[in-house]
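Exam revision sheet. Question 4 asks you to relate a sequence to its structure. Input first:
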Amino acid sequence: MPRIRPGRNRSKNTNRRAPLLLSKMAPEDFNVRPAEVKSIACPDCRTWRRIMGDKVLKIREHCVSDKVAEGEKHTLCPGTDQVVEIDIDVRQWQAKQDRLLRDAMPQDNRRAAQQFYKPLPAPAVPVSRIKAEVTLETARQSYLAHRKGCIRCVKGTHCTDGGILARRYVLALQEEPARREAREQLERQEQRTVRKQTAPAVRKAQWAKHGGEAVERANNLCTTRTSGSLSEFRGPGVPLLPQDAAAHDRRQAELGKQYAQMKSPATSAA
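Answer key, structure tokens:
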């Protein structure tokens, strides 16, 4: 017949010894974790026993030997009903014990406190659902590759993905003239930009190579010049000296006298 364990010890009796202080015991000889059953290694028989009670903590009643069920004499251990006082900081003790357990554990068996599970890779997206730049060649190659490996796409019939790829290929065929025109227009615009950027340097190099006077003479020989025009580059020939020098001097003298008369009243008034 299996032995029935006694219920919770509600006796107020003690072994009349001084309370057992946890601060004077080895940290590994007791367990007072909040989420676990409190237990302690009995200082007399060195066996692990439960700590009973809510306010007054005592070591549970136990025998000296664990073989009572086999017929040995039932002898109480002197450590029965030993009062225990928790005079330590439970959080610090628990942190120290956790650290000792991690240090004592083999390196291969150590695990992080928080496990980070690598997510499983998502299945590959079918070619018919890939949203990328669709050109005539890429649409054609995708369609032919699908037809080659699909057993449901026979003659004029298509599967779901084959139908999508076929419509994409037809749409690319319809849009190809507009794409070609856009590419040619872009190329012409790039060529114009390059010519605008290189034109000043090209003209400067040509002018330095052929020389200004030689170009001017060659240009003057092309068309007949009007009278009084020396060159298209220099403009018409304008006289630099007056035709009648005496008349010019008299006119300048008269203007000088008029200027002196206009200035003299202002000077006298001041």
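Marking note for examiners. The radius of gyration is 56 Å.
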